[in-house]
Design a protein that fits this description.
Length: 192
C-alpha cells in the first residue's frame, strides 16, 4: 500500500481501533501461476499473540482458496470509514475530487488448524466477537452437537500470525486547516 508519511498511522493500533466494525476483511493469496485469489471473510484478532497479533478465520472447505492457503504469504485488507470528497466541500477552489479513508493491510502466512478443539474455540470466539453487543447473544453450544460437528467438517479453519502491518488514514492531512474544517462540516469526523 502506498503510504505517504503524512497519511501513515501505526498499523496494530489502527487495526484495534477499526475492530470490530471492520472485522469483515479481504484475504488475498497468490494462486497457481501467480494469479491472485481473494475471499471475503470475518476475522477475529488476538493482539496478544505475536508482535503484531494473530488473525483467525475459516472458509468453506469447497473454496479453492483453501487449497493454497499455506503456500505463500497472504494479504488481509481491513477497510475502515471512508467518504468521497467533492472539490465543492473545500473552502478553497484549488482542489480536485478525492476519497478520504482509513485502511489496514496485514501480511502473514496462514496455517491451517486441524485440531477439532481449536477449530471449535475459533468458532466460539468468532461468534462471541459478533454477538457480544446483542441483548441475547447466540452461542455455538446452542446448536445441536452433531449438526455443529458436521458443519465443522465442512470448513477450513486457519490462523495468520501477522509478520508486517501497515496503517493508512488519508483524511486530508495535506490540506490547509481551513479546508480540513470545511470538509468535516460536510462529512463529519471520519476518524475520531
Amino acid at each position: 500500500m502506498y503510504v505517504p508519511p503524512h497519511f501513515s498511522v501505526p498499523g496494530k493500533e489502527t487495526l484495534i481501533r477499526l475492530l470490530p466494525e471492520a472485522s469483515f476483511a479481504l484475504l488475498i493469496s497468490c494462486g497457481e501461476g501467480g494469479v491472485p485469489i481473494a475471499t471475503h471473510l470475518p476475522f477475529s484478532y488476538d493482539e496478544s499473540r505475536g508482535e503484531y497479533g494473530t488473525l483467525t478465520a475459516h472458509m468453506a472447505r469447497a473454496n479453492p482458496h483453501g487449497k493454497i492457503l499455506e503456500q505463500s504469504e497472504a494479504l488481509i485488507i481491513f477497510q475502515g470509514p471512508h467518504a468521497y470528497i467533492s472539490p465543492r466541500y473545500y473552502s478553497t477552489d484549488t482542489n480536485v475530487p478525492t476519497w478520504n479513508y482509513v485502511a489496514v493491510h496485514a501480511y502473514g502466512t496462514p496455517s491451517i488448524i486441524e485440531d477439532s478443539d481449536k477449530v471449535r474455540a475459533l468458532l466460539d470466539q468468532l461468534t462471541e466477537d459478533n454477538e457480544k453487543d446483542r441483548a441475547e447473544p447466540w452461542r455455538t453450544d446452542m446448536l445441536d452437537q452433531k449438526r455443529l460437528e458436521g458443519l465443522m467438517r465442512g470448513i477450513i479453519a486457519f490462523e495468520i500470525r501477522i509478520d508486517r502491518i501497515e496503517g493508512k488514514a488519508k483524511l486530508g492531512q495535506n490540506k490547509s486547516a481551513e479546508d480540513q474544517a470545511a470538509v468535516r462540516t460536510i462529512t463529519g469526523d471520519l476518524w475520531k
